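Could someone model NAP with this protein?
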Amino acid sequence: MSILLDGKAVAALRERELSEHVAAIKAGNGGQIPILATILVGDDPSSATYVSMKGSACRRVGMDSIAIKLPSSATTDDVLSAIDRLNTDQAVHGILLQHPVPAHVNERLCFDRISLAKDVDGVTSHGFGLMALGEPAFGSATPVGIMRLLAHYKIDVSGKRAVVVGRSSILGKPMAFMLSNANATVTLCHSKTSNLEAEIRHAEIIVGAVGKPHFIRSDWISDGAVVVDAGNHPGGIGDIHPDGLMGRCAAVTPVPGGVGPMTISTLIAQTVSAADRACAVID
Ligand code: NAP
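Reply:
Sure, complex below.
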C-alpha cells in the first residue's frame, strides 16, 4: 500500500487555518490585512499563470495582493527599483519576484535586494544562509512545502538516505539542507553526477527537481521509497516517471496536486507570518 501525498488536500486544510489567522490579524489591527506583492518580469505564460495562482490564493484566505508587471525589456535597475519601493511600503508584508527573470536581468542581485523581513519566498542569500544553519528564516517555498507535506503524513526523514536530483538555489540546494537539518543523510545530484541511477537506487527518499519531463525512470527507484516529484510540465507530467510507483513505494506525490499546491500554501503562510511580525513591531 502506498500513501498518496495529496498536496492539494493538505494545502486546502492549511488555507482554512490561514483564513482564520488573517481574519484575526484584520480584527486586531484596525482592518489591516496581509499583502503579498508579486513582480513578474516579461511575458512567459507559465510564470504569468504561477503569479496569477498566487494572487488567487491570497484572495481565498482573505489577503490582498499587488501584482507588478514589468516588460521583458526591463533592466536589472528597473527590477531593483520596484523592489526598493515595495521594501519601504509598510502596507506590503511579502515580496515575490517570480523566477526565472529574463536572462539579461541579474536575478541574484534582485533576489538579494528583497528585505529579509519580506523575503516570504525564501530567495535571499541571507535567508538561505540562516535556513542552512538551522536558524529561523523563511525557507524557499517549494522545499518548505515538501517538508510540510512529509510532516503532515508523519513521514520521518531522520536517519533515512535521501537523494535530491537538481541543485538549483530555489529548490534542490535548500531541499538538501532542510532534509539534512531534519537528520536525513543527503546526496545532492546534478548534471555532472556520474551514475545517477546508482545514487537513486539506494535512496529511501527521492526528490526529483531536475526540470526534465519523466527524466528519472521509475525502475531506478527502490521498493518502499518515498517519492517526491517537484516537476510540473505541461500535460501534468513530472520529473519522475510514475509507472508502477503507486503500490510498491511507501509514498508518492501526484503530479499535479502534490508539490505545487504546497508551494503556494507555504508562500501564503510565510506572508501571514511576516504580517504578524510587522504588526507586532508596530504595536
Ligand atoms: P533548474 O534551475 O533548471 O535546475 C535543474 C537542476 O537539475 C540543476 O541543478 C541541474 O544540474 C540538474 N540537472 C539537469 N540535468 C540533469 C541530469 N541529466 N542529471 C542530473 N541532474 C540534472 O530547475 P528548478 O527551478 O530547480 O526546477 C526543477 C523542477 O522543479 C522543474 O521541473 C520545475 O518546474 C519544478 N518546480 C516546481 C515548483 C512547484 O511549486 N511545483 C517550484 C519550482 C520548480 P546543474 O546544476 O549541474 O546544471
